[in-house]
Amino acid sequence: MMISYPGLSKLKFKQVLYQNVILASDSGTLEQLKELSSKRKAIEESINDNRFITDAIAREMSGGLTSRCEQNIQKLERYLPLLENLVRHVNLKGKNRQIVSWISDLKIRWSSVLTSSSIFHLQGSKFYQVNDIYFELGMTLFLYAALLRERALEVLSSDLVQSAALFRKAAGVYNYLAQEVLSNLHRTQERPPEATSRVCSVISLICLAEAQAVTARKAEENGNTGGVLVKLHYGIKEFLVEAIDILHVANKECKDVSSRLLDFILSCKTLHELKSYKHLAKVQKDEHKEIGVAIGVLRWALSNAKKFLPKEESWKLVYKQVIDESSEMLRKYEHENEFVWHEKIPLNDELPLPQAVKIVSIIPYQPQKWERTLVFKV
């Protein structure tokens, strides 16, 4: 039972024709620039639902992949090494005025899915143009990580191990983006939240929290005791507290980050905190035979959880279900205590606190670097 934040891959971007702007000195370089444009266009058409091929042809072109998400991941994995190679050759030329002019003329434009205005923009998507090749690399990597996360959600119901691994892989891409790519992006132009290091760090932590949530579900299926689940769910809460702290700083730097992102993180944090206390109450009753403590834990946790209510309807449904389950558990414990145990309920400051454990980590992103020579007319 997870709260979901879909749509991070719904980015839009305008066409770029590398070969029409960057002047090649030989036919090999020209072909590589054309290949870059072609592979980028294939991604654009698929992501923006502008492709003119049937599902059967798309499946055949991808080597038999049936998932649209997997097909798009494959397209990006074919484009990214070529783009990394272009970035490397552009950097070799340093601050060459001709290269700078070409990058500006490429008109690299991407929309955002994380701004408040992205939902209400009257003229359709707002596009950000940043005259920097690192903007293209950064937004492409953001899209790649978003699709990995989307695929993790796609396989969640059928393969928990694969889902957790995909969340960790997405976290690794977002971390690489925050630490290695966006630090090179010039700060002189307006850019979307997706192209800021702190926002990418926030989403990396969200992916880690989601990976641990899947791990907790797997642990529950494997019959692990409540003590393990207490620590796993409280560890998820800790990941999300860190994400909230970073997001507060990010909001000062990038004023237009949608409040929906914060509401999602707060909803997940409160949900998993409640789950942790629910398992803690079960441990106190079943293992320590302290039903009074269990009742005190549940009363405190429910009181705290009811102070917050998610804004999105689908999140409310999940949230309400966990609150109802915890309330029913409390009712049973109180009934049993009244007629059998007659234990005193401890004060709040006498109650035990959950311990957190973080057992998931990022899978580091290793960019594939294709060493192809590019020769420009400069």
TrEMBL record:
Q: Where is the BRO1 domain?
A: 1-378
InterPro entries this protein is in?
A: BRO1_dom, BRO1_sf, BROX
Q: Give the matching PROSITE patterns.
A: BRO1
User: What domain of life does the native source organism fall in?
Assistant: Eukaryota
Q: Do you know which Pfam families this protein is assigned to? A: BRO1
Q: Which CDD domains match?
A: BRO1_Alix_like_2
Q: Report the family membership.
A: Belongs to the BROX family.
This one is known as BRO1 domain-containing protein
Species lineage, top-down? Eukaryota, Viridiplantae, Streptophyta, Embryophyta, Tracheophyta
